[in-house]
């Protein structure tokens, strides 16, 4: 189940990356660099946690329950945030880029 969730998150990452650069306007693509990196970082973290949990489950040590709990927490509470961050990237929201400097 977790591998399927990770695969879906990775597919979303690829789709959003392509959408961000589809305009051929680097300024528009980079306008949402921060939420893009937040989402991308969470997908990478989901991958690392899954890898750690799989390794712990096949280990002779008794660390698997804690690793599994961390994995379950991250996939339930953190991984769903990726879609929210990626949404502004995919839809080319440029509010932050377009605010005049004298308004800050």
What this model shows, in words?
With 104 residues, the chain is an all-alpha fold. The chain is built from 6 helices and no strands. It has helices at 2-21, 26-30, 33-57, 64-78, 81-90, 95-98. α1 packs antiparallel against α3 (33-57) and α3 packs antiparallel against α4 (64-78). The chain is elongated, with a radius of gyration of 17 Å.
Give the key terms.
104 residues, mainly alpha, 6 helices, 76% helix
Helix content: over 70%
Mean pLDDT: 91
Shape: elongated
Give me the strand/helix succession. HHHHHH
Oligomer: single chain
Task: Count the DSSP helices.
Answer: 6
Uncertain stretches of 5 or more adjacent residues: none
CA distance, first residue to last residue: 45 Å
Q: What does the main sheet amount to?
A: none
Tally of extended strands? 0
Strand percentage lies at under 5%
Briefly note the structural class of the backbone. Answer: mainly alpha
Rg, alpha carbons: 17 Å
What's a concise summary of this model?
The protein is an all-alpha fold.
Strand and helix map with partners:
Layout: H1 2-21, H2 26-30, H3 33-57, H4 64-78, H5 81-90, H6 95-98
Helix pairs in contact: 1-3, 1-5, 3-4, 3-5
